Amino acid sequence: MLRLIRTESFKLSRKLKSWLGPQLILVLVLIAFPLSIDISQYDLDKFYFSIIVISLMMTAFISTEGMFEEDFEDGSLEQEFLLEQDFYKIVLSKMLIYVFFIGIPIALIGSLFLITNGADFDDLPKVFSILCLSNILLFNLFSFGNALSINKGAMLGVLTSLPLALPVIILLGRAVRTIQYGEGFFSIIILMSGISLIVLAIMPIVISAALKTHID
Amino acid sequence: MYPYLLFIGITTLMIGWIWGVLYAPEDFQQGNSYRIIFLHVPASIFAQTIYYFMSICALMHIVWRVKLAAYLIKSAAPIGAMITFIALFSGSIWGIPTWGTWWQWDARITSTLILFIMYLGILTLHGSFSNLEKADRLMSILVIVGVVNLPIIKKSVDWWSTLHQPASISTSGSSIDPSMLMPLLISIVGLGFTLISLGILSSRLYILNREKNKKWVLEHV
């Protein structure tokens, strides 16, 4: 497992566009959105969390788009499978590395932008933890969609994974309200942590099954 | 067998609709606009039922590698997409006189839209691969994962404060007057038979198409 994590982190760190690109896109969207609409700062304070959530969803999708495609195309996915005889560890290590290199930074960027747009500074840990958990969920769901479609383009990946991501967005909407009203935050964070753990445990098995089908 | 089922289905559906539209009493709050329930409710029920059926087939295909189960999923998915679209469309029409809007980002409506996108995703995924065995397997995986949406649709009216009303018919009873309930139940049964017969026809055609190079198909045709 450690060898896989080392390999994956080395591979991702060499692909600058894969980990830096999504972060820059997120920053661009978060800067451009308020400029493109004519609303007061008061309205923006209310809407900005939703803008971050949707931008995060887009970024998560862009980040995972090539997660398996390149490895599949150049045969390294098959080679890893022959070495490990199991995809679970490969998928899990990929997921952990992607969340660590991309998910956590974009959660931090989102939290900082929110603070600069009117949110209370004391809410920073709450916002950051919610965005981190939602990233774990979104990265898993989108990588599932991309594992199914693998080299068939983004449209198919979106069609297959977006229906699964929408309940996460609804849950995030509820989390946003708990932060804004200052009530029920701990129950929602416990719920999200539970769902994230379940998804993190089960989704690599499902993704492995999809990848195995491609290699068979 | 399917022509008989189709005949029974359409006849029962017509009885339910004629009874519901012409003879059932007017609703004291919604007037005549409520009569769309004789289409909307059966369509909504079967939109989810078809997905349950597909998920059982997907499990059979993944676990026991039953080839026929994958054929059934592929045949049922367009019917599921069609009936989900009818449920959404009829709901929109009903929304105008009751809510004053065609569309509302309400939990039940949105989750049903997600189900519709799911059906489209399943069909697109299967259509994207030239290797049909691979397509069958990937489609089954997606169907199983998509099951997670069904309890969300079912419970959406209880978990969130929604514009959509909670279920009127449950195992503990019904809040609908019997004079309206009877034609509704007949419409549900009628649509059920119609969809089963369409499912049989669709799977028959699909199996013949998939197995067209086999000897038994040539003999059969």
Automatic annotation (TrEMBL), chain A:
Positions of transmembrane segments: 20-40, 47-68, 95-115, 127-148, 154-173, 185-211
Keyword Membrane assigned: yes
GO terms of molecular function: heme transmembrane transporter activity
Listed InterPro entries: Cyt_c_biogenesis_CcmB (IPR003544)
UniProt entry keywords in alphabetical sequence: Membrane, Transmembrane, Transmembrane helix
Localization per record: Membrane
Cellular component, GO, one term: membrane
Topology of this chain in the membrane: Multi-pass membrane protein
GO biological process: one example: cytochrome complex assembly
Keyword Membrane: yes
Any matching Pfam family: CcmB
Family note: Belongs to the CcmB/CycW/HelB family.
Record-given protein name: Heme transporter CcmB
Protein source organism: SAR86 cluster bacterium
Top-level taxonomy: Bacteria, Pseudomonadati, Pseudomonadota, Gammaproteobacteria, SAR86 cluster
